[in-house]
Amino acid sequence: xxxxxxxxxxxxxxxxxxxxxxxxxxxxxxxxxxxxxxxxxxxxxxxxxxxxxxxxxxxxxxxxxxxxxxxxxxxxxxxxxxxxxxxxxxxxxxxxxxxxxxxxxxxxxxxxxxxxxxxxxxxxxxxxxxxxxxxxxxxxxxxxxxxxxxxxxxxxxxxxxxxxxxxxxxx
Length: 171
Description:
It comes from Flagellimonas algicola. This protein is an alpha+beta fold and 171 residues long.
């Protein structure tokens, strides 16, 4: 009887220690995919192969874009910068599996850019989150505060308009 009780305790201990797959990690194939995507962004290589055909992307709004529309968004924004990209060190990545079994990669990054119009350097903290299905990105959300960039672009536009008006007055 003691042996049976001891065997039961060992089985109970073994079963309680078996927790299944990790639900949180900082190293995964999905995280590597996100790092590759960000590296492509930094080098202005706009590759959509990491996205599912039906992926949806939202940046700071409820407006949804396809992967190719998101790449066009970045290309258009590039006109504002003489250089831009994510800081190489100090970035944080995590992959989580939700209670519903969804795989998400979250990252907290620092973006740095130099405005083309006036060489002003800007640094912006960014949060990106990606949902993966079968190794492909199916959802992407990006959140950051664009205020400093917007204000700088407005200042540049106002200065250009003032210079134009002054030039018209002197003619």
